[in-house]
């Protein structure tokens, strides 16, 4: 049990536990009395919160969608900022980033189910690789405006971020970026199948 008193281990555990907080589920339940896990795509992310709550209250849906997006993005950044000022190594920061995404996608509070990890992934990347995250955000915004398919926009942005990381930081260890990318890709497999079948819904 000595490892629990290790600073790195404490940050890793905190990253996973805080990353696992299902803000979308909690907000929709509290303010709209809806269970997003049993509606829409079943995801706890901002897109499903927006889609499900919109059927009941369009105005509230936008507010809860934005709040979910912001909180999911910030929960990884929160631990990273504390760890950064605590003076941990860059490797530890990357570990925190990866575990925050894992926590969101495989939440300990939801029987290891969770969201797609896009907002949390973008949040930690904004801290770790801000230039690459900006590239991804621009690509995502373009897709959201013209493609209007959330999953396709997110996957395109993910690809842009990974490619940009190799161009902007060719000498860095890319393993954490690849791991996060793989997790997000894995969580989007159902969306990819629907995309191939032409069944993926647009965000309107």
Overall description:
By secondary structure, this protein is an all-alpha fold. It has helices spanning 7-19, 23-32, 46-54, 58-85, 90-105, 118-128, 130-146, 150-168, 175-187, 189-197. The protein has one domain (2-197). Helices cover 71% and strands 0% of the residues. Helix 3 runs antiparallel to helix 4 (58-85), helix 4 (58-85) packs parallel to helix 6 (118-128) and helix 7 runs antiparallel to helix 8 (150-168). The model has no long low-confidence stretch (mean pLDDT 91).
Quote the average pLDDT.
91
Gyration radius from CA atoms, angstroms: 17 Å
First-residue to last-residue Cα separation:
51 Å
Shape: globular
User: Helicity, in percent?
Assistant: over 70%
Total number of helical segments? 10
Largest sheet: none
Low-confidence stretches: none
Order of helices and strands: HHHHHHHHHH
Overall number of domains: 1
What percent strand?
under 5%
Count of strand segments: 0
Catalytic activity: an acyl phosphate + sn-glycerol 3-phosphate = a 1-acyl-sn-glycero-3-phosphate + phosphate
Main location: membrane
Subcellular location: Cell membrane
GO molecular function: acyl-phosphate glycerol-3-phosphate acyltransferase activity
């Amino acid at each position: 049990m000595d490892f629990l008193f290790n600073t790195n281990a404490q940050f890793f555990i905190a990253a996973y536990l805080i990353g696992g907080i299902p803000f979308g589920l909690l907000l929709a339940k509290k303010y709209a009395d809806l269970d997003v896990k049993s509606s829409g795509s079943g995801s706890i992310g901002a897109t499903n919160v927006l889609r499900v709550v919109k059927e009941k209250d369009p105005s509230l849906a936008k507010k809860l969608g934005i709040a979910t997006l912001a909180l999911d993005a910030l929960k990884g950044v929160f631990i990273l900022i504390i760890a950064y000022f605590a003076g941990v190594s860059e490797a530890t920061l990357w570990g925190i980033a990866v575990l925050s995404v894992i926590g969101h996608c495989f939440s300990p509070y939801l029987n290891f189910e969770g969201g797609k990890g896009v907002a949390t992934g973008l949040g930690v990347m904004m801290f770790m690789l801000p230039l690459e995250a900006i590239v991804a955000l621009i690509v995502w915004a373009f897709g959201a405006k013209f493609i209007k398919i959330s999953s396709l926009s997110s996957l395109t942005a993910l690809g842009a971020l990974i490619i940009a990381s190799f161009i902007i930081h060719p000498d860095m260890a890319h393993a954490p970026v690849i791991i996060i990318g793989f997790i997000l890709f894995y969580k989007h497999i159902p969306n990819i199948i629907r995309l191939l079948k032409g069944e993926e819904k647009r965000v309107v």
